[in-house]
Amino acid sequence: MFTGFIFATGIENSIPTINNGRTRMDEMEKCGHYKYWRKDFELVQQLGIKVLRYGPPLHLTWLGPDRYDWSFADDAMRDLRARNIVAIVDLCHFGVPDWIENFQNPDFPAQFARYARAFAQRYPWVQLYTPVNEMSICALFSALYGWWNEQLTTDRAFVTALKYIVKANILAMQEILRVRPDALFVQSESSEYYHAENPKAIGPAEIRNSRRFLSLDFNYGRRVDSEMYEYIMDNGMTRDEYHFFLNNNFKHHCIMGNDYYQTNEHHVSADGATRSAGEIFGYAVITHQYYNRYRLPVMHTETNLTQGPNGDEAVRWLRKEWANVLRVRNNGVPIVGFTWYSLTDQVDWDVALREDRGTVNPLGLFDLDRNIRPVGEAYRDLIRDWCEVLPTQSVCLQVPIALPLDYEDPNCNEGVDGNPPAPPVPRRENSDVATAAPKNTE
Length: 442
Hints:
Glycosyl hydrolase family protein; alpha/beta; hydrolase; GH; Glycosyl_Hydrolase_39
């Protein structure tokens, strides 16, 4: 059983398409993970990290309705389990297989839920999931900004994508819980804020500050703001679809993941145009806004910064974000974890994966040759210094996470004739996250 503060990293597994679906931006391939996956898992252990955001490539694993190729996933997941690394399994990260086409497909939610159930049956030792990563960003970039996948630019397309993406997330949670009743879900979502540049920009900024909550409002069964209700109804959502979200609430199984980068805050002009604002409020202030709305345990699920010409820019950002995490905890918010994303450098995120340039972005704890960066050394030291202190000397939410080897299942990766293996046999009981209360041990 693992109940300490969660220090995590992740393997970048974005797979959106661009060029009208002709080009797949597969970050696992670009970053060399298919070749170096064993080495990558070794690097996770070298840093003292016990939790990894990870998911097999959806487009190569999910071949069609109830058709799967588990070959890569079996090898990788078996190795993770042998290392006793807790996986927060990231099932869908910004893209879908070609046969689904894109997020305008109404068949996506039900089909994805079947995939999630099949995954949970095949790897029953997995307890933590992010079924769909950054649901709001996925819908925005695919259906409102015109960058990925369907590459549409209308409010109706955005609402359509968002309702199908969040419905897929909810149905996947439902199916996973049928296999693993103590499953926990870490909703990794971008935490945004829009600043009005002048009084005439207040209206457009307020609209965007309401829209930023839509994905989590739907996911957690919260009634949307009145202006957003009119917006979604005007753009194709039906009353039955809206009430589906109100009536299917699994928030007692959820940890709210907040992602924060320097690009998450925006200036808004009077005509509604936006531009990057850099860090103004910062992670602590914006996370309080989300926590006050949903009142759920929190995890800082993504951040990074380019190493930069001085070589210490990423290290200073790590320390700043960590100070924000401690500030949130000291203010009484049950924050349970922190993540530097990702383990290695990424490729083409400087243009948000909109172009296939092959530009390496020095954002990782390690470079693409698997050499540690200064921020990797700093994160390793931070974990060493703080991992034993936080659970005993601060406001702490004890989240009961079963380690992979806490489950005995000799066939957990060895389905017979393509069939999923038998359910796991727990060695010890686990309580639900809803029963875990903040514990003040100061």
